[in-house]
Specification:
Strand content: 35-45%
Number of helices: 3
Radius of gyration: 14 Å
Shape: globular
Helix content: 10-25%
Number of strands: 7
Largest sheet: 7 strands, mixed
Bound molecules: coenzyme A
Oligomer: single chain
Structural class: alpha+beta
Length: 145
């Protein structure tokens, strides 16, 4: 059984930590703004087990003119559940929630290694590759929705 639903910031840690911050202090899994009422967290459950997470932050990036922008952060699928379509399903779900809230642009910093995944869903690169300290090489990706 598969289910996608809203989760708390605290619940995201169970997936963020092993996938995005492995071997680093648990505090590094907390993102600024995680607990704001304008921030939403979604979880993908397989047989009631949380296996993937994504978060949407209401955050304007000056590089874009759109008024109602959202930033996606913390997209992660547990290693053993990757490449089964779960990440794409969760991304689509989150996008749709942003659309319902009248969001008109999604942007985020994407790991270089994940750019191919996002391109499949219509995201485009803006600008050059840059380094986020302790995390790695990233591109800014965006999509008008
Ligand atoms: C990147 C990630 C979120 C993708 O989730 P996933 O559940 O593994 O991906 P899906 O199975 O939904 O993939 C959908 C399609 O994208 C492709 N894809 C998945 N990961 C990819 C990647 N890193 N690069 C290129 N294509 C990728 C899949 O092959 C699949 O295509 P197919 O249907 O033709 O086989 C997941 O692998 C992950 O958590 N990786 C480690 C953490 C990370 O990089 N997070 C993103 C931070 S910006």
């Amino acid at each position: 059984m598969i289910e996608i639903k809203k989760i708390t910031a605290f619940e995201t840690i169970m997936v963020r930590h092993p996938v995005l911050r492995l071997g680093r202090p648990i505090e590094t899994c907390h993102f600024e703004g995680d607990d704001l009422s304008t921030t939403w967290h979604y979880g993908f459950f397989l047989e009631n087990q949380l296996v993937a997470v994504i978060s949407a932050f209401k955050a304007k990036n000056k590089l874009f003119n759109e008024e109602n922008q959202y930033q996606i952060r913390g997209m992660a699928v547990l290693d053993q559940f990757q490449k089964r379509g779960f990440g794409e399903a969760l991304l689509n779900y989150c996008e749709n929630e942003i659309r319902i809230a009248n969001g008109n642009l999604i942007w985020f910093n994407a790991r270089e290694t994940a750019v191919g995944f996002y391109k499949r869903s219509g995201y485009e690169i803006l600008g050059d590759l840059f380094e986020i300290p302790d995390v790695g090489l990233h591109y800014i990706l965006f999509k008008k929705i």
